[in-house]
């Protein structure tokens, strides 16, 4: 099956390299310029190339430098408008052809968010960033927007603010002043970048704003560099949070899998409207500022994103149906790194937290059981964002963990992992190709006994099973969860005690890390809701409704909003909604994990509070988050 989310004819002719020449216009809020494709013909006589586009303003198309008459088809609501470009007659398989498209983005560009200066930390300069996965690169440039096509790219971008791309910076030098020594916000600087490793289009990314760089300590025995970008007001906190672990994770990953191929591994901490926890853009992982909790407990997100350098950016899923190959494998490896760098208990704890989020999402899809599957057969033009959930992450990671245990543990499993990545590095693959290699590997390294072990796995149940549980009951190391569980039990047992007689102390949580506090709150969610006065006491005693740690605050609100009939619910609904829309701080919390969950929970308690809060600030959300919240609240 070919990619169900693209209209391009990538199996006939495909892009090998694209040169992007862009100018950022901060007034008009557009990126304008040119995309020059070096195409390779796959099929004799192919007469046209079809690109994906959406909401682009195209002014000229040339083939081999000659202007041609092109055709932009009507807009499909998910896939956008196919751009048909005639290539002339008689092209032979193997030959190359150059196509240039002059265009501008429009205000409907889904990939880009333009932030006013008030929405940034520094409040002095505007900010721009992209999010292209899964299918939004087509709103930023005409491309064959499928992960089955892997391209190299170069870019020349002019802006009055520093520009970062998912590539290697050539000029101005990245270790010099961020804006090449020119005046930030005033002088136009041309940035050039080069991405020599072929990557899927969803990994092309841009950010521009008042950002500065700080390198992480260099490892003399490794040939990559790593560091962090953020607004100057945030750089100290950002450096502190990630400098300890990032390089160590990457080293461990190299030692287990294979050397890092991208040369640079930088992090960029974005403003709070960034819609994800992290995004593995090549050479430059994008991160939400909600990770800056000051206790380094959320570094697992960095372990996750850098793991994508192998699983996703190196070995890529062929299309949305096989998305789990990216996320399931990455989640498994992220937790293996936690085990190696921290402790086995950390790995188990992470699986435990993940399991709860899996069950929540499986329950959310009770009426769309198709999305409870690990391998989803999408219809042509179905929106992959509707299927986005923890299922590919957690079912996928548990399948790999189950595989590791069934095959005989890490000693026999890790050599296979390395072989898998080295075999498919640079390629885009399907679930069938993955499994064929798995069997071939153990046929060679182990023989009948290992094949028997593989055959004992109920593959159909893992790939196509529906329902709200895993095909196998998994055991995890729960040692880090016990104190969270027992504190939750004490609260549960106190539900009939008068608040004035309770003996909970504000320092009960002092020796908990944020993940343990999160697990404590999740455990409480699994009990009958607490009476409102107890809940209020819980919130104020531990500062749960005022903490800047979004992982904790969101879980407290979700606990408080669980009992929709409680007299306290509307009060919590209003404060939860206000927190998301950034009342008092001026910046929305746009990470979808938080804003979608909270809006959905508020909506259940009081539709009006949810819809009004959203309407008030909806333009402050990234277009992707806006679109998804509108669906969740029944507004679209
Ligand atoms: N690649 C994903 C983000 C993504 C997936 C964006 C699909 C758009 C479509 C990224 O690697 C990711 O999984 N982020 C997680 C973090 C993680 C630790 C599970 C997130 O944002 O929550
Ligand atoms: Zn991921």
TrEMBL record:
CDD domains: M1_LTA4H (cd09599). Its cofactor is Zn(2+). Its main location: cytoplasm. Residues 479-633 form the Peptidase M1 leukotriene A4 hydrolase/aminopeptidase C-terminal domain. Keywords: Cytoplasm, Hydrolase, Metal-binding, Metalloprotease, Protease, Zinc. Binds 1 zinc ion per subunit. GO terms for cellular component: cytosol. Pfam families: Leuk-A4-hydro_C (PF09127), Peptidase_M1 (PF01433), Peptidase_M1_N (PF17900). A peptide binds at residues 131-133, 275-280, 591-593. One of its GO terms (molecular function) is zinc ion binding. The keyword Zinc applies. It is found in: Cytoplasm. GO terms for biological process: proteolysis. Zn(2+) binds at residues 304, 308, 327. Belongs to the peptidase M1 family. This is Peptidase M1 leukotriene A4 hydrolase/aminopeptidase C-terminal domain-containing protein. It comes from Armillaria gallica (Bulbous honey fungus). The lineage of its organism: Eukaryota, Fungi, Dikarya, Basidiomycota, Agaricomycotina.
